[in-house]
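Hey, sorry to bother you again with one of my protein questions. I've been staring at a protein lately and its backbone has me curious. I owe you a coffee for this, so here goes:
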Amino acid sequence: MSDKMVVTQPRPFIVNSVSNQWTSGICDCLQDLPQCCFSFWCFPCFTCKTAHEAGECLCLPLLDAFGLIPPIATALRVSVRQRYGIEGTVFNDCVYACFCGPCSWCQIAREIKTRMSPITLVNIAK
């Protein structure tokens, strides 16, 4: 008589986070508390760090202080949106950059962070 032991292992499946939408909303700043605090306590440093992570010049965001419409925040938002295939318009990007500046920068930073590691492994136990 033979004893058979059957062991069923949970198998991971891959969830791909690539989408044509932002992975977080404009007001979801608290999703990443360290970035939220960094942007609150040292906003100029945060914008420079985010621009650098997006592949732009480190000091580029400092030019936003000289205009009514923040051209760098708008341009960076458009650039990130186009890079990741996120739907939207330049008009909306401009509105967010003008009226929701810090939240817009936090959203850009979260998007870059999320898209840099787009694969999530999820274990499902039967």
